[in-house]
Structures are given as C-alpha cells and as structure tokens.
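Appendix B. Chain record.
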Amino acid sequence: MASQEEIFKKLVSHCKEYGFVFPSSDIYDGLGAVYDYGQNGVELKNNIKKYWWDSMTLLNENVVGIDSAVFMHPTVWKASGHVDAFNDPLIDNKDSKKRYRADVLIEEQIAKYEDKINRETEKAAKRFGDAFDEQKFRETNPRVQETEAKKAALHARFAKALNDENLEELRQIIIDEEIVCPVSGTRNWTEIRRFNLMFSTEMGSTADGATKIYLRPETAQGIFVNFLNVQKSGRMKIPFGIAQIGKAFRNEIVARQFIFRMREFEQMEMQFFVRPGEEAAWFEKWKQTRMRWHKALGLGDKKYRFHDHDKLAHYANAATDIEFEMPFGFKEVEGIHSRTDFDLSSHEKFSGKKIQFFDPELNRSYVPYVIETSIGVDRMFLSVLTGAYSEEKLEDGETRTVLKIPPALAPVKLAVLPLVKKDGLPEKAREIMDNLKFEYHCQYDEKDSIGKRYRRQDAIGTPYCVTVDHDGLVDNQVTIRYRDTMQQERVPIVRLEQVIAEKLSMKNLLKTI
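Structure tokens predicted for this chain:
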C-alpha cells in the first residue's frame, strides 16, 4: 500500500498532467511557492468560491460582499499591527543551510507523538479484533500513557513559549526534543530570528517622491476600512457581516507542501460585526455553521476537526481552526476568530475618524466586536482534491485513478461521447451538448476507445458520462455512466437533464448546510 507521502507526490503530478495546477512560469523552471491554475483547476476553484460566496450572501440576509483593492494606504498596516508584528520565528540549520519556522518544527514533533500513539492503537486493534476497547487501551496502556505524557508536557511548554514570545525557549525546546533538520539530519541550529512577511513596493513617479506601500498580506483590512461605507450605504444594522474573496501576498520563507503554503494566494473572508458582550455566542454559532459547510461536501466527517489556538493574537479573545486531514497530517484550512473591537478601534485611532455604530435599541454608540471566518481558497482546493483522489483496483486487474469531487464542484459536469466517429453519432452528441451547455460545463470527446475516454473523465472528476450509440438514433435514449460506481443506465434524452440536475445543483448542496 502506498504511503501518504507517495500518494501526495502522485496527486501533485496528477494536478499538472490533468490541467489543475502548474508551477508558475514553468518554462523558466518555475518560481518558488507560486502556482498557476490550469483549465480544470480554475473551474474547480471558481466552483469552490461560488459555494462559499452563495453560502454567505444568499443564506444570510445580513451578509453582503465587497471587493477591495490590493493596494492600501500604508497607515492601514501600521494600524493593523502588520508593520511591527507580522513576522515568523525562523531558525537555520548550519549544515544544510536550510531555513525553517521554529513553531512548525515543534508542531511536527507534537504530531509525531500523536502518530506514535495512533500506531500503537492500530496495532492493538488488529491484535484484539472485535473485542478491542480503544478508549480503555488509550487510558491504560503504559507505552501510550508515557507518550501521551511527553506530548502533553511538550505542548504546555510550547504554548507558554509562544505566548511569552520567548525565542530562546523555542530554540531550547528544539534542542531538548532533539529535533533534527530533515535534510542534513543534524541538530546544528542557529539562534531564532523574526522575519517580516510583507512584500513592499513603491508608488509614485520618482524615487524621491515615491511612497512605500505594501501588497496586502490579508484581505480583512479592506473590510474594516470600509465598515462605515458599507454600513451607511447599505443601511446595515448590527449584527451584520461583510464578505470578500481576494488575493493576498506573504513573503513566506518556508513555503512548501505544494499549494498549501504559497507566496501569492487567495482568501475567502467574512467579518461579522456584533454587539460587545454577544461575541462568545456568535463565535460558537459561526464555528458550527462553518464546520457544517465543510462536512456538506461529503469528503468524510472524520477528516475534519477543530483545533483551538495555543497562542491567541493580542487582539483576540477566542480562536479556533478547522483542520482537514491532508496526506501530511491534520492542517488548518479555515480559522474562526473572535477579534474583539481591536481592528475598528485601531483604525479609529490612526485615521482620526469615528468608526462606531449607533444602536437604536440600546440608544448609544459603540465600536462593534468582530467574529472572523477566514478560509484559504488554495487550501480548500487542496483539501477537496486530497479527499477526492482515489486509486481503485478493478475486477479486470486494472487500476483506475478517479477524482471523486463533489458533483456540484466538479470542473466538468458532463462528458458527451459518441460511440464511434461516424453514422450520425457525433451530430447527435453535439445536439445534446448544445442543449445542455447553457447550464453545465460539458466536454465532447470522440478520440480513442470508449474505455479510455471514461478513464480520462474519471481522472478529472467528471460525475457523468453520456454515451450516444446507434440504438439511440432510433429510440432517442443514451447511456449514462456514473463516475463513482461505474454503473450504467439507459435514459431517454428528454429526461437526461432531470437525471443529472439534482446531484449537480449548487442549490441542493447549499440546502444541506
């Protein structure tokens, strides 16, 4: 059986081969941690964005959208804290000359303890079979208990060092845990330094008169500085939310794991403005709502979990991540944060403008508190592909690679295939395409055997293939082949759309949230 690492390598190469993701500037050997989305990738990405956008703006009467500029007044980033505090703790290995994020090295060490416990549990489960009591085993097995104690101690020490912003202690943890460089295998570490992640550039015609500005490292500030514009022009009442999808840029030194951590990426963020004192209830509500949104895709409920933050940002009073089980472990896909009134208060202070809401029920003005939901489009894209990628052994001994992408998100919804390239079958197939293309992204394919064509569609995640054969010219019926089961069914052409519509409908998907 292939390891998770091997599966991930296959997935990365599958993405390039089938037009999902290409290295940026590929003919020039690429640009580190920057990627382009191909013809199938852009369709999947757009469908993910539509699923998110509609779930925010259609399902919530009090959530509206904006699209703010990438360039913003430089004082925005002073007010937000990014100029002074947006940095990562980095450590170098002197032998490999490779640079790592110190916090990530320690998080990976904690994950190793967790993996060790899971391996012990799996071995015991195989040994004892149906009689196995997993909870009792975890609570009583000495080896598991010992590893659990090490993990808990490391976790507590790590959380304290993060909250104290104690770089020396972070380095000492790396030394005490005997964490080695994955490349050189040595423990020859430098001191830890902080590195600001913002890209800067200059705006203006001359070097003397130019203003230093930044490429935004997040989209949230575009929402906060537009709070008054949206609230007044939309006559919005608290509670209400502002949603936005847009590009963000971070000069990640340790960018890796394909599109998981990139220098140019896309975010889907919604800032929800609430009364002070009501933020805890809204935080809980949005936590559950966002988890339902993820699970509605049917990639497997066990692949998701909440992970509460060890270190809260200075402005937050609660924060949790929704993590998805990637081939390289559970990783953050979305963050839900209770940001208090930090952002609006800070912009009020730096801009000199009053950024408050007059609440007629309370008969007073206040700076609203904020609940943020922030999801990376690229990470979401990766989680969908990871959950969908499957290699199946067939009865004839062959293997098929199939992407079981949720049908409403699939790049191509329907492939129309004439059995042969003659006898009027291509014309009939084109007629079906022309009828359905206004509603669904369809693909026509007449090259190679029907079996090879099915495999190609499996590889890009097409939920339905429709084959037009000679009988169909007489009885006006076609064969639908279902991607996940490979079962086939004869249906009248007039009923074709009815048969496929339910599964492909974004509306039906939204109804399950």
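Further analysis of this model is presented in Appendix C.
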